[in-house]
Amino acid sequence: MIVTTPIQQRFADADTLGHINNVHLQEYFDLGKMDLYGNILGERIDWRGVNLVLVSIKTDMMRQTRLGDPIVVETWVERLGTKSMTVGQRIVDTRDGGCNATCSTVVVCFDFATQSAIPYPAEWRALIEAAIE
């Protein structure tokens, strides 16, 4: 499953040359991850109990994203491990389908009560596996 998130840019996202600042590109990727989690897990995430925690992130910029460019973030699960998963993403310009930036994120299933990574609950694992197929 690839979840596509349309991005509404804000004037403040751009620098004086009209480029979208790298920090804001990361915020766009975060919006895509939230859509993915919502599409797969729905309301099952308890943000105070067992949760998903970001542990690694890598972003590559291939070409400029400018204020006003019609862009979407595409997000999917690349790999599911026992306690972690890798989420892949790309920012796509809808005019030509070109990829402006990519992002790879590793998130772990984390229990805040014990302050440790835990295996994904069976219900979550089944939902994530179904989304990968």
Would you kindly provide a brief summary of this structure?
The protein is an alpha+beta fold. It has two helices and six strands, in the order βαβββββα.
Description of the structure:
There is one protein chain. With 133 residues, the chain is of the alpha+beta class. The chain has one domain (3-132): Thiol Ester Dehydrase, Chain A (Roll), CATH 3.10.129. Helices cover 23% and strands 38% of the residues. It is built from 2 helices and 6 strands. The chain has helices at residues 22-41, 122-132, and strands at residues 3-6, 50-61, 71-80, 84-93, 99-111, 116-117. Strands 1, 2, 3, 4, 5 and 6 form a 6-stranded antiparallel sheet that branches. Strand 4 (84-93) and strand 5 form a beta hairpin. The longest helix is centred in the first third of the chain and has 20 residues, at 22-41. The mean pLDDT is 91.
Keywords:
133 residues, alpha+beta, Thiol Ester Dehydrase, Chain A, six-stranded antiparallel beta sheet, 6 strands, 23% helix, 38% strand
